């Protein structure tokens, strides 16, 4: 009998092109018999933020630094939870409401680790990854400020 795979493959991509969630899950789980749960989080451009009708959202990043920062948090997630695979895809460019922006997939033998790791990664992507957002609406455009609620969400993962 073949022994189960015990490595944790990691894929981190920053791209302009859209992604296919089902395809990404299939790639992550292909020929893997050690995965019992895959949790996916997909972030989508929304049309309404604080009663402002958003026409588009532009995301910019610091190439190289963004990937490294994401990898640092993925490494922390794989050290905290028994993960069997992680995929993080973050898109950059101009988006209209309804378009995909970010995908986080975490795979583990059991669901709890996969859920917690995905939530941890999203909290840190919102607060630490070097991405900048510019919203455009009928009333003008402007760069999005950091939100205290995002910092509070990330703070709960801080080890004491």
UniProtKB/TrEMBL annotation:
Keywords, sorted A to Z: Molybdenum cofactor biosynthesis
Pfam family, one: MoaE
Pathway(s) where this gene product acts: Cofactor biosynthesis; molybdopterin biosynthesis
Enzyme class: transferase
InterPro entries cross-referenced by the UniProt entry: MoaE_sf, Mopterin_biosynth_MoaE
Keyword Ribonucleoprotein: no
CDD domains: MoaE (cd00756)
Enzyme Commission number(s) of this protein: 2.8.1.12
Recorded catalytic activity of this chain's protein: 2 [molybdopterin-synthase sulfur-carrier protein]-C-terminal-Gly-aminoethanethioate + cyclic pyranopterin phosphate + H2O = molybdopterin + 2 [molybdopterin-synthase sulfur-carrier protein]-C-terminal Gly-Gly + 2 H(+)
Top-level taxon of the source organism: Bacteria
Quaternary structure annotation from Swiss-Prot or TrEMBL: Heterotetramer of 2 MoaD subunits and 2 MoaE subunits. Also stable as homodimer. The enzyme changes between these two forms during catalysis.
Function of the protein: Converts molybdopterin precursor Z into molybdopterin. This requires the incorporation of two sulfur atoms into precursor Z to generate a dithiolene group. The sulfur is provided by MoaD.
Family, similarity comment: Belongs to the MoaE family.
Protein name: Molybdopterin synthase catalytic subunit
């Amino acid at each position: 009998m073949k022994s189960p795979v015990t490595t944790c493959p990691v894929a981190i991509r920053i791209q302009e092109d859209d992604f296919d969630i089902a395809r990404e899950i299939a790639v992550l789980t292909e020929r893997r018999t050690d995965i019992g749960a895959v949790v996916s989080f997909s972030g989508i451009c929304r049309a309404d933020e604080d009663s402002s009708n958003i026409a588009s959202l532009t995301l910019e990043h610091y190439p190289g630094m963004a990937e490294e920062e994401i990898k640092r948090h993925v490494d922390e997630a794989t050290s905290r939870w028994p993960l069997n695979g992680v995929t993080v895809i973050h898109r950059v460019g101009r988006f209209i409401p309804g378009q995909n922006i970010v995908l986080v997939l975490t795979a583990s033998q059991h669901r709890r680790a996969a859920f917690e790791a995905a939530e941890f990664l999203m909290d840190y992507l919102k607060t630490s990854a070097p991405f900048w957002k510019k919203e455009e609406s009928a009333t003008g455009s402007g760069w999005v400020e950091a939100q205290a609620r995002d910092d509070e969400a990330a703070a709960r993962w801080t080890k004491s």
